[in-house]
Design a protein that fits this description.
The chain is an alpha+beta fold. It has two domains: 87 residues, 3-Layer(aba) Sandwich (Endonuclease, Chain A), CATH 3.40.960; 35 residues, no CATH class. The strands form two sheets. It has a four-stranded mixed beta sheet with strand order 1-2-3-4. Strands 5-6 form a two-stranded antiparallel ribbon.
Length: 123
C-alpha cells in the first residue's frame, strides 16, 4: 500500500509512520487531515487503546479510515477505491461513513443515523 500512496497515485501526499501529538499513525495526509490505519495482528488486544487514540485525534478534527491488513494484501484495489471515494464523497457516502463509524465504535447494537434528508439503518 505504501508504494501506491508514496507515488501520489491518489493525487495527494501521504506520510508513513507519522507522529501526531502523542501517537504515531500508519499513514497521514495533511491536506485531507486523514489518518489511514491498517489493522492486523499488531492491533490484536489493543482495540480499546486504538479506539481511545482515534477518539482523541478525531476530537481535534482528524479523520480516520481503517482497513484490515488482509484487505490491503488481497484486495488493494478496493482499499484504494475507498480512499479515492473519501476524497470526493457523495452525500450518501458521507452518511454511510458516519454510520459505519458510529456502529463500530458504539456498543455494537442496532443504530439508526438520521439526518434532515434521510435515515440510514446500520448494524
Amino acid at each position: 500500500m505504501w508504494k501506491e500512496l508514496r507515488a501520489k497515485k491518489l493525487g495527494v501526499q501521504f506520510l508513513r509512520q507519522r507522529p501526531i501529538g502523542n501517537y504515531v499513525v500508519d499513514f497521514y495526509c495533511h491536506r485531507l487531515n486523514l489518518v489511514i490505519e491498517i489493522d492486523g495482528v499488531s492491533h490484536d488486544g489493543r482495540i480499546e487503546e486504538d479506539i481511545a487514540r482515534q477518539n482523541e485525534l478525531e476530537s481535534k478534527g482528524v479523520q480516520f479510515l481503517r482497513f484490515a491488513d488482509v484487505d490491503v494484501r488481497y484486495n488493494l484495489d478496493s482499499v484504494l477505491r475507498e480512499i479515492k471515494e473519501f476524497k470526493n464523497p457523495s452525500p450518501y457516502r458521507v452518511l454511510l461513513t458516519e454510520a459505519v463509524h458510529f456502529s463500530l465504535f458504539a456498543d455494537k447494537t442496532l443504530k439508526v443515523l438520521q439526518s434532515s434528508k434521510c435515515s440510514l439503518l446500520t448494524l
